[in-house]
TrEMBL record:
Protein name: Helicase C-terminal domain-containing protein
PROSITE patterns in UniProt: HELICASE_CTER
InterPro entries: Helicase_C-like (IPR001650), P-loop_NTPase (IPR027417)
Keyword Signal found: no
Domain Helicase C-terminal residues, every copy: 39-200
Keywords recorded for this protein, A-Z: ATP-binding, Helicase, Hydrolase, Nucleotide-binding
Molecular function GO terms recorded: ATP binding; helicase activity; hydrolase activity; RNA binding
Pfam families: Helicase_C
Protein's organism: Rotaria magnacalcarata
Amino acid sequence: MKKKLVCSSINPKKISFLGLTISGNIRFFRWCATFGPPGIVQELCKKRKRHDQILCFVSSVAEVNQSCKLINQISRETIVAYPLIQSQHPNVQQDNIEHGNVFFATTVAETSLTCPCLKYVVDTGMINVPVYDFESKRTVLREVRAAESTIKQRLGRLGRTQPGEYYSLYDFKVDAVPYPVPQICQSDLMNIEFSSRKSPLRKGFNYMKSFLPDKPPQIVIDKIMKQLRDLNILENGSSDNLTEHGEDLAKLPDFGSFAMSKAVLAALHDYDCGRDLICLSAILGVLNTTGLLKSLPQHLKSPDGDFMTLLKVMDEILLARQSTPAKQFNLDQVCQANGLKEIQHIIRQALRRYQTLEKTFNQSPDFCTRAQVKSGDWELVAKSLSTDYLDNVFVSMKELHDRSHLFVRYNSRGDIAKLDLQSTLTRPISTAPVSIVLARDIRHSTAVRATAIISFVGEIKAE
């Protein structure tokens, strides 16, 4: 391995390093290596003392898992590295920190976790950020350089209990980007625009932009307005008032996404499965990764896919809640009995979210009765979801006599995708894949531009 170390200063009162100035008892190094973070961590393991801990920041969950496996291989299983990622139960994170010495982490370890014997921090200086492309109407996962505020948070892990060493694997000027790009400037603003218009203020970005320090481009605001008119949410013309359909949507509580709001309204009005969609929205609203799907017990996995699997999980919890006196209901025991102990923290958030929605609908004169209707029928749930997720239908390329484990978007865009490996609909490479799927999430990456990843999917059976 080729390596190069540059030490800037030792135990100074005030340090200047790549444009970063900070006080502390920390040594700074810039390390250039051809092997990557696992190789550098392996080198540090040769010099660390028995209880010293090493924390390496990488850009994504996938890179965390790959690095943990790779360092285990190159060290011939003499080094055990632990992942620290957001989807883990806090107890798992704490247990890893208490018993481990080497960690690979995403941004979750910047602020919320403390390693008691941390001696070394290795920082790639990169993060993965979802950026919404307004032209293609898709969210692309981009690897970008970390801002100065992020670097300082990572650096701040050191020096708490003992002097530390910070190894940078980047050479950019840290203070050139003081803060990350505001989320409002790189997100899909449809839900925010609609939420603002249904609020008592009844105004959107064209009014609010004057109060924002970082404004979305006017061309983006105009496109959002056009989309809302095309969807029959806003009236045509200069008034920008909500249509009758828009007013119906405005009566619903916030579901976190405009698409889910439309799906719930369709379930309530057209498909008699309101409670199913409300339950589903409660758990989907607290999930940003699919990691929990693989850990679910087999009896809770539905052959129809991820949506009905998550609905079965919620139904199991709610059935136990309804059949037990309120003061005797114990979520810990219910999760333990159903093999859900590993994801208990997610279940707790989903249940809390459902209880909030349940209370809101119970007080709604328009939807109170319909919100109690449960079908358990995937076809009705799928039709409700298709109200706004219809563009997210993908067909297996095997049906088109092409590569069997890739999918192509059903509409005219022709996007190529592969199924999330955590999905309950994944099949062995020797087995034919499902023919048609409906997806909630489509993740594009600039690193692998041709192939997207579709996750939270359900099988659509052709008639």
